[in-house]
């Protein structure tokens, strides 16, 4: 089977096409014929030489990135009870394992959910990483209908889901975008207020009026987010760990979140999307090839992408 792998840590040019034998599922694993996946910041961090959850990845070993999987079950391990060959599934794998940038991928049974027939494989491949990150960030921040929520980079992959899911919870949602062209996109997914953070100081505009910040940008956006939170406010970053000393100094709760697979949440995300209550913004679609993945990763790290960057493997 074809796969796109990293051979050494470094820039996106190290993404290389390789041929591998078909994987054999373990007892609780599912072999998926892949139709789609998507680019997630965790994949880009691995490309840049970041450490995975299991420690530094050996430079001599090929590593296949890709945390999102979407496709058709080709085979199952002896202990799998929820899925059978022919089922259409999607799900999330740990970043340290990867495997999504390939024609076939293994995933544990508890990392997957059934794909509704009304959902395309491209959308199913876009949902797991960005959608689960947003869902779990809002849950960790205990977002309620009475909250004023600021989503940093609300037209990015995770941010666009966070804006919509916060609105479904009844919250008032303010978001920052990168450039004036993102304002219409933000309003289009339900934001009550959108601020071009490239041309305006969101902290000066908002003052200390925000109950919850969902940060998907990191860097300056994260550091300035402390200034807009009310006393006792909550901040959850999906980009990088917040400064604990600053959080304690200002009397707010701050946390860093990485997504975890959850079949129930996957099913709910798919139900909301198939029912038209949630929109998966696709900011570009690229083929499973060296050129396609290098272009997709370059777009991701540029910060200019709208929504999720999709990778199409089979149509």
Characterize the structure shown:
- By secondary structure, the chain is of the alpha/beta class.
- It folds into 2 domains: 2-115 and 281-312, Medium-chain alcohol dehydrogenases, catalytic domain (Quinone Oxidoreductase, Chain A, domain 1, Alpha-Beta Complex); 130-256, Medium-chain alcohol dehydrogenases, catalytic domain (Quinone Oxidoreductase, Chain A, domain 1).
- Helix content is 29%, strand content 28%.
- It has 9 helices and 15 strands.
- It has helices at residues 41-47, 121-140, 157-168, 181-188, 202-206, 219-225, 244-250, 263-274, 290-302, and strands at residues 2-6, 15-19, 29-39, 68-76, 88-92, 104-108, 112-114, 148-152, 172-177, 193-196, 210-215, 229-237, 253-256, 282-287, 308-312.
- The strands form 3 sheets. Strands 3, 4, 5, 6, 7, 14 and 15 form a 7-stranded mixed beta sheet that branches. Strands 10-9-8-11-12-13 form a 6-stranded parallel beta sheet, with helices on both faces. The chain has a two-stranded antiparallel ribbon with strand order 1-2.
- Strand 11 (210-215), helix 6 (219-225) and strand 12 (229-237) form a beta-alpha-beta unit.
- The longest helix has 20 residues, at 121-140.
- The model is unreliable at 50-60 (pLDDT under 50).
């Amino acid at each position: 089977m074809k796969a796109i792998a990293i051979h050494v840590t470094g820039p996106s040019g190290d993404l290389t096409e390789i041929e591998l034998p078909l994987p054999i599922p373990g007892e609780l694993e599912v072999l998926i014929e892949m139709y789609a996946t998507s680019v997630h910041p965790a994949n880009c961090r691995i490309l840049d030489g970041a450490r995975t959850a299991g420690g530094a990845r050996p430079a001599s070993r090929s590593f296949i990135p890709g945390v999102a999987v979407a496709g058709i079950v080709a085979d199952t391990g002896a202990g799998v009870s929820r899925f059978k060959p022919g089922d259409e599934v999607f799900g999330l794998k740990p970043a340290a394992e990867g495997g999504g940038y390939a024609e076939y991928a293994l995933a544990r049974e508890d990392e997957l959910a059934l794909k509704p027939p009304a959902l395309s494989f491209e959308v199913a491949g876009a949902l797991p990483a960005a959608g689960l990150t947003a869902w779990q960030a809002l849950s960790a921040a205990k977002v309620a209908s009475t909250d004023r929520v600021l989503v940093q980079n609300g037209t990015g992959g995770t941010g666009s889901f966070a804006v919509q899911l916060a609105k479904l919870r009844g919250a008032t949602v303010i978001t920052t975008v990168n450039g004036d062209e993102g304002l219409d996109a933000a309003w289009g997914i339900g934001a009550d207020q959108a601020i071009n953070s490239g041309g305006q100081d969101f902290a000066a505009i908002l003052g200390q009026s925000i109950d919850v910040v969902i940060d998907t940008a990191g860097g300056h956006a994260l550091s300035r987010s402390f200034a807009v939170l009310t006393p006792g406010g909550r901040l959850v970053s999906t980009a990088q760990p917040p400064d604990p000393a600053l959080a304690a100094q200002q009397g707010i709760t701050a946390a860093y979140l990485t997504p975890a697979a959850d079949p129930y949440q996957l099913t709910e995300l798919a139900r909301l999307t198939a029912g038209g209550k949630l929109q998966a913004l696709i900011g570009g679609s690229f083929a499973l090839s060296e050129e396609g993945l290098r272009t997709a990763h370059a777009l991701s790290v540029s910060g200019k992408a709208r929504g999720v960057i999709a990778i199409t493997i089979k149509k």
